[in-house]
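Q: Predict the assembly, please.
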Amino acid sequence: MKSFIIIGHKAVTAPFSLNDLPGAAGRMDILCRCINAALFLSHDLRRDVRVYLVLKGGSPEKLILFEGSRLRYLSPDERSAASLIKKALEKNAQEFWTESTPGVSIRKGDLADLLAELKTPYLNTGTGKKIIYLREDGMDIRGKKFEEPVFVLGDHEGLTEDEEKIIMEHENEIVSVGPLSLHADHCIVLLHNEMDRAEKRI
Amino acid sequence: MKSFIIIGHKAVTAPFSLNDLPGAAGRMDILCRCINAALFLSHDLRRDVRVYLVLKGGSPEKLILFEGSRLRYLSPDERSAASLIKKALEKNAQEFWTESTPGVSIRKGDLADLLAELKTPYLNTGTGKKIIYLREDGMDIRGKKFEEPVFVLGDHEGLTEDEEKIIMEHENEIVSVGPLSLHADHCIVLLHNEMDRAEKRI
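A: Predicted assembly structure:
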């Protein structure tokens, strides 16, 4: 299983208009592109992927989960992912996961809650996962092996100091995908390619 | 200069609704994501990139050019790229390029016209460019050097036999980005990363 956590610092926690994802919805377009990059193959879905969105643009913060193995109704376009996020936000979010559409669930919670949960056997995610995050001064991903990785990526604002501190409370590793600073969804494509190559041994 | 040609087999050649890019606009969402992947860095644009779209979903076929060095008003979301394409399609396209917004131009023409044009000194693109296209049986891109490359990518339908034949009339090379079949925009991210690494020698 490969998990991606994407932090949306401005992403709203209430239903929003599909016609203004970057503005009124708080750069929800970024999260939608990350869902695409994490889950889509050509004419197929990556079934071994979970994408967690951390929506920080409202109170309380909310978490949304997209599970590749169970996902339905997702098309590659931003609006399609946004529509499933919106449907999740229409649910009355609890302290536990509630499924809104097949493969999409929502709960109240923040990054610390999520990382703590991923350390428990809940959702069969196992224990002791290493949290991997991207920074330009990190170790190059080329040739690296990732086992059951949990990647944390920020939106256009990157990760805040507070978020880095929360990550530091877990076993972690800092990696870099290349010489230039890239959008989160582009980083996800590069991470997948490295893991695809390792799995196929090319 | 790095050029990307994206073929939209169903992409409409008349103005379209921004609210249904995958359906009524003929998978225009794919072309929009390719524009994003080809042109965006984190908080910057790739100035040394040109993206050519081949719109085949109407008659006559039309070509649209996005030039990184001159581009304005483009945001990373699909709807933003779609809006600039729509504005271009509102122009009365001629046999020569007409600029619709800064850095975006349109003309009548098809893939053969475009490849012929790229062989001439027009647009300072030089002569004798090698056309590079992606296929799963191509040579791995890792470690390859690309000089003034012209990449050709298909949308969800890949390249047709006729399109491959047109490319075969030019000096060409077939490459592969990895072991799995990916969306065109994801391939562009991987091509850029390889070129970024070569330029920075990492």
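Residues 9 and 56 of chain A are 5 Å apart (CA to CA). Chain A has a mean pLDDT of 94.
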